[in-house]
Amino acid sequence: MFNSLFDQVDSIIVRDPAARNRLEVITCYQGLHAVWFHRIAHFLWNLGLKWIARVLSMISRFITGIEIHPGAKIGRRVFLDHGLGIVIGETTEIGDDCTIYQGVTLGGTSLYKGVKRHPTLGKGVVVSAGAKVLGSFTVGDGARISSNAVVLKEIPAGATAVGIPARVLHPDLPQSGDSKTKEYFSAYGVTPNVDDPVSMALKGLIDATIEQEAKITQLENALAKLSNLPTESSSSSDTKRDLGAMKEWLKE
Q1: What does DSSP say about strands 167-169 and 160-162: parallel, antiparallel, or unpaired?
Q2: Local structure of residue 93 (DSSP, 8 states)
Q3: 71-80 pLDDT, tens per residue?
């Protein structure tokens, strides 16, 4: 029991640079307290003591500002960072080592009872502040959901979701569970080496336009030589320069 407790506390210290020692985490982290309350409420829920479990979850919400339905399934070493305003629905499943920030909603879109209405988070998922994950789909292992994103469909393992509705990005990060992967833990879902798909599409169009401009210039020069006319490449070079500047701006 104590090994499991210290394992969760130590995982918080690894992921939060503000955490200085175990005593501080145990006494001052409401996200940890909410998970502890939920463990008890979930146990009572599974025993059939559903009303008592709901009352305990309400007490936990009053104390911590985090609402977790006692029917939700939460894995090991889950960290609710800051935590205020988090809402986790009844049929939600959260895998090991997930990190969820303040203001997150793991909600359902179906009104039918007895069916899975809420999302399933794989292992090591990061859900950033204010994000809404709505529906009974799966967010793959190691995925990241950026701040204020609204996720309405499945997210592949290792991908990053941004925007409203969320678009899927695929960063080039290691996906294994070894120590090297832990070095790439992305606080608030911020990941390096990732680009927005709209920006990538625009840059692709600019590349194609620059290539077409070069071919047109070559054709104009060939026609000018055949007609013994002077070549005019200044406008073409200006266009190419403007497109190149726009492409560099998109990279920023």
Answers
A1: antiparallel
A2: E
A3: 999 999 999 9
